[in-house]
Each structure stands twice: as structure tokens, then as C-alpha cells.
Write a structure and sequence with these properties.
Rossmann fold; 3 domains; 6-stranded parallel beta sheet; 6-stranded mixed beta sheet
Length: 342
């Protein structure tokens, strides 16, 4: 009886199946030289058919360059981050990079421990930090250790780092103007604690935009609670249920802006269970444009943050930083998706 070979497919076998040279396959995988679209398609089909996985360790040794990327996120249970990472990882793996992902669970201490451990990473390795806070000294130390750092979904930059962020200022002015034009007299921001820089910027921009469009005093409400950091959907529900039980409706905003779609979905359930209607009694707006936001009832008005595009753009910056070690800082614009919740 014949035994199936357990040997992993080689780059030569990929080249033979695709009808190209091994060097062309190498160029396709490493991005060192441009490969024509026709050849790229044939190579990728051969890779898929043979289940070929590049050996990043061997290629790293040949090129004497680091192939490790360390990604820190605040919450891997949040679809916002997992969708970005799926897009990012697909592109990174195709070029033979190792991705190591950790979650610091919105804990400053845990993030600092993770960053401290990365001091021993191979020189030239890339560290991608989503959000993060109170970590500037450790980031500067990583740079001193010849590691490359990208700050993701974070507007504030640190010398020697690259960054990619969403525009969290202009879109809040668009959002508040929309609420004003819809006739909402009192508006509220329902947000997680202002630990992360992008959340603080949303908060500050919301207040600035509210005042610009004529809201003041009791016509502006900001609600936040430390429980809203994790398990956002459930905690959004519990916190809004408590608000509705303790506060007369006439004292509440008639439109809520939630700092994430997950919070907004929890808020929506609490409002519905209390016997109120959206948008008749309360308007509701989320942030992120998660896939589920289009399918709940009523469909959620939300700020569109294109996670797939963010992941691909983040990879473009990562690739450039890894190959040239230059600092790149980009911002992605956002837009309001108007649906029936507001």
C-alpha cells in the first residue's frame, strides 16, 4: 500500500505548476519585484492547489531580515478588530510574515507587560499597537531597541512611529449637523470610558460640534461607565436599562450617539423592552458599521469605519515600514450611513 508523502510542497513545485520560474514565485511572495497579473493569478492558484505555505524562518535567514509582526489589540472578542485583522493577516501571510496577536483587554498594566516582553524580539521586527494608552515610554524604548512601531486606530503620534487612524473629528460634525437637521432638541453621547485616545477625540469632537450647532446646557448629555469597556453589547443593555428605570424620559436626550455599534445594539434592546420606540421616542446612532448593524430592526444609523480597507491599508504601511524603516502617518476618512434608527 502506497503511503502519502508528508513532505511539505516546495517553491519549485509551485513554480512548475504555475509555469513560471522559482524566482518569479519568490518575487510574488516577497514583493521584491513586480509580477504581472496573469502570472500572479497562476501562482496563487498553484499555491492554493498545493496548500503551499512559505517557510518564513528560512526566507528570513536568507534575507537576514525579521519576518515577525506582533499585534496588540484591546479586545479580540470585538468584531471590529477581528475583521481588520482578518484582512491584514491574509495579506501578511501571503508574503511570508509571522503574525503574533495578543489582547490586553483594555488594561494599561497588561499592555505594558506585553510591550516589555517585546524588548527581546528580533531587531527590525514590527509591533502594531491598536489604540493603547499610557504606553509612550515603552514605545520609545521599543524604538531604541531597533523595533518598528505602528500605532493603529490612534490619532496621536509618537516620534519614530508610523500610524493609521480614522478621522474622528470631521465625521462628528457631520453627525451632529444631521441630528440638528432631523429636529432632535437634546442629544447625548453614550460612551465607554475615555481611556483610549480615539474615544477621547470622539468625546471632545462631539461636544465641540454640539456647541457649534447650538446645543448647550441640559441639551447635551454625556454618559459613560467603566463597565462599558468589555462585553459592550450586554453592558450597553444593562446601563441603558438602569438609565430608563431611574430617569424620566423628558429628562433624557431624544437622540443617543453610542461610541460603538455593539453599545448601540445593547441600548436598542433596553429601549425596546422599556416600551419605547426607535426613532419615535429616541433616535440612535452607532459607530463602526458592523455587518450586524444593517440587519437589526430598526436598521442602525452608524458611522462607517471600513474595517477591510483599514486592514489592507495597514498592511501597505507595514510593508513599507518593514522594507524602508521610514515613518508613515495616514488618516482614513469616515462617513455617516443613514438608516431607520434615526
Amino acid at each position: 500500500m502506497k503511503r502519502h508523502s508528508s513532505k511539505r510542497p516546495t517553491i519549485s513545485q509551485v513554480a512548475e505548476r504555475a509555469g513560471v520560474s522559482a524566482g518569479t514565485v519568490s518575487n510574488y511572495l516577497n514583493g521584491t519585484v513586480s509580477v504581472s497579473p496573469d502570472r500572479s493569478i497562476r501562482i496563487q492558484e498553484a499555491i492554493d492547489a498545493l496548500h503551499y505555505v512559505p517557510d518564513p524562518t528560512a526566507s528570513s535567514l536568507r534575507r537576514k531580515e525579521a519576518r515577525d509582526i506582533f499585534v496588540l489589540t484591546p479586545d479580540l472578542n470585538n468584531m471590529f478588530y477581528t475583521k481588520i485583522l482578518r484582512s491584514y493577516m491574509d495579506l501578511a501571510y501571503k508574503e511570508g510574515y509571522n503574525i503574533n496577536i495578543s489582547s490586553y483587554e483594555y488594561s494599561r498594566d497588561l499592555e505594558k507587560r506585553m510591550l516589555s516582553r517585546l524588548m527581546s524580539a528580533r531587531k527590525g521586527s514590527l509591533v502594531v499597537i491598536f489604540n493603547g494608552f499610557g504606553d509612550e515610554d515603552l514605545i520609545e524604548a521599543l524604538i531604541q531597541h531597533d523595533l518598528r512601531v505602528i500605532l493603529a486606530d490612534r490619532n496621536k503620534t509618537i516620534a519614530g512611529t508610523s500610524s493609521l487612524s480614522f478621522d474622528n473629528e470631521n465625521v462628528l460634525f457631520d453627525l451632529v449637523r444631521f441630528l440638528k437637521e432631523k429636529g432632535f432638541r437634546k442629544i447625548g453621547l453614550f460612551t465607554e470610558p475615555l481611556l483610549l485616545e480615539n474615544i477621547r477625540l470622539r468625546h471632545d469632537s462631539f461636544l465641540k460640534a454640539a456647541r457649534y450647532y447650538g446645543y448647550s446646557g441640559d441639551n447635551i448629555t454625556v454618559y459613560f461607565d467603566e463597565t462599558l469597556v468589555l462585553n459592550k453589547m450586554n453592558q450597553g443593555y444593562l446601563n441603558m436599562r438602569r438609565i430608563l428605570n431611574e430617569t424620566p424620559i423628558q429628562s433624557l436626550p431624544d437622540a443617543w450617539v453610542a461610541s460603538s455599534d455593539n453599545l448601540a445594539i445593547g441600548i436598542m434592546r433596553a429601549i425596546n423592552e422599556a416600551g419605547y420606540r426607535i426613532p419615535d421616542d429616541f433616535g440612535l446612532v452607532g459607530f463602526d458599521n458592523l455587518d450586524v448593524s444593517e440587519f437589526i430592526q430598526p436598521a442602525l444609523t452608524t458611522v462607517n469605519q471600513d474595517q477591510v480597507y483599514f486592514g489592507s491599508k495597514l498592511w501597505d504601511i507595514s510593508r513599507r515600514v518593514l522594507k524602508t524603516n521610514e515613518c508613515v502617518n495616514n488618516t482614513i476618512m469616515q462617513n455617516l450611513i443613514i438608516r431607520s434608527s434615526c
